[in-house]
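TA notes. Do not distribute before section.
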Amino acid sequence: MKRNGKLTFAKVHAMTGSELEQYAERGEADRSDLSRAVIHHLHLSDSWGCDSEYACEFGGGAPVNVRLTLKCQPAVTLCLSSPSDDVPYWRMCLPFDGGTSVAWLYCAETFDPRTIYYTLQRIETLTTSGITTPEKLAVALRQAGGAV
């Protein structure tokens, strides 16, 4: 894949798992640019902290791996991953039970930051109403149809 300038939403949205892999394999700087572009397009509120994978510190497996942590509830950390050669979907999950279980919050063939943003807002609302642990959030989101 050739350098095509800035990673716009349209470019990230249209990239397949293979194209994302090729982009990330160009080196740490390009992988970092890819992660930053995804984070930029999420338009995170100040309620969320964000960390992205640069080597394989989150377990690798996808060109983009982002951890979104609710600042007021640090135990609430969501994992957002891009498609790869192995898994053709963008996906976001909420690990719970010490990481042994996950609630799937998002799974799509293309990057849709608006849907992800609304999911983050829903989680903020639930924590404000007193549902503050990942386990309780997973149950509440599942009951409301926002998780599997």
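Switch to the second chain here.
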Amino acid sequence: MLPDFKTLLVALEGPVLKVQLSTPETGNAISGEVLDELLTILSAVDDDPQIRIMVLSGAGDNFCLGGARSEFSTLLAEDPSGGVLHTLANKARRVCDALATTETVTIARLHGGIVGAGVGLAVFCDLRVGADNCRFRMPELGLGVPPAWGGIMPRLLHEAGAARVRELILTADSFDASTAQEMSILHQVVPQDQLDAAVARWTKPLARRSPAALRTAKLMMNAYANAQRIADATLLDAELLTAAITAKELARRR
């Protein structure tokens, strides 16, 4: 039995779990509460062998417009040492790790704005379909912080290629759905009214696959993706992000 959530809408349809970010008034910004609820649902997914597929989407006009930046100031006022903020950053990494390593096949259903942390949530899903109105952006450098949310950098480099990712991070330029598909950030691009049909074209055959074969395939892909990793530099991301935000906030207050 799934619990009730404040920031997510969750529906189980046979072997498919639909999870929708549901704070459209904030552009589905990723707050600590959203991260807590995502961790809860991802843990429940791993504990339920009947769930084969999880579809992640966003309510309203945008999938996700990034992290809840107003929360950073609040947390630093609560704890000027940055300890609470560090905990939040670590939580983001745990959510992305859970998305990447869950044995359930994860599908991102994207539309509208996909910014910063929203890009992170998307690229950690196995399959990604986007509406032709998608607009992506990695704005961190423009905001004075490193692109360290959730350990996104190695995933982006692996999925999209170093040269293009370097350009998009350094310039903080926005890019459209067709560019995202060229970079393999999106697997498919469709008109927005065809998003559900595109997702169904994936979920229907996946639901017929052997559960054991799906789990093994996910484990193999995760193992091969990490085979060349001698040390996981993303373990430093929470420290880097906390230090940068703390320094920026202190400078603003002076």
